[in-house]
């Protein structure tokens, strides 16, 4: 279990191998809400969480490093997806 550097809370993320036919399980940020993560070809995980009071979109590496918030506004930002374009 990894701790996010800016929060200190543990993160549990279950991702499937790319070759496996099943869907990836959810990422849970303990003490905060989170949606099902999306993983890109560079192994970054995108997810939304309400850790700051409303839902924002973040990305991080599978090992919990490289956490970066992509959105910061009063709107509820959820369900991130990766695009090939």
Q: What average pLDDT do the residues reach?
A: 65
Number of self-contained structural domains:
1
Order the strands across the largest sheet as they lie in space. Answer: 4-5-6-7
- Report low-confidence residues grouped into runs of 5 or more: 1-33
What is the rounded Rg?
Answer: 12 Å
Number of helices: 0
> What share of the residues lie within helices?
under 10%
Question: What summary fits the major beta sheet?
Answer: 4 strands, antiparallel
CA(first)-CA(last) distance = 33 Å
Strand content: 25-35%
Q: How many strands in all?
A: 7
* Approximate shape: globular
Pattern of helices and strands = EEEEEEE
Q: Indicate the structural class.
A: mainly beta
Describe this structure as you would to a colleague.
The protein has one domain. It contains no helices and seven strands. It has a four-stranded antiparallel sheet with strand order 4-5-6-7, with no helix packed on it. The protein has a three-stranded antiparallel sheet with strand order 1-2-3, with no helix packed on it. The protein is mainly beta.
In short:
With 85 residues, the protein is mostly beta strands.
Please outline the helices and strands.
Layout: E1 2-3, E2 10-13, E3 27-29, E4 38-39, E5 45-49, E6 56-60, E7 68-69
Antiparallel strand pairs: 1-2, 2-3, 4-5, 5-6, 6-7
Question: Which characteristics define this entry?
Answer:
7 strands; single chain; 85 residues
């Amino acid at each position: 279990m990894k701790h996010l550097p800016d929060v200190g809370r543990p993160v549990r993320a279950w991702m499937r191998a790319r070759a496996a036919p099943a869907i990836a399980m959810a990422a849970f940020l303990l003490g905060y809400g989170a949606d099902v993560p999306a993983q890109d070809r560079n192994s970054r995980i995108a997810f939304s969480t309400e850790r700051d009071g409303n839902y924002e979109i973040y990305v991080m590496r599978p090992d919990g490093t490289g956490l970066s918030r992509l959105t910061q506004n009063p709107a509820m930002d959820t369900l991130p997806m990766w695009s090939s374009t």
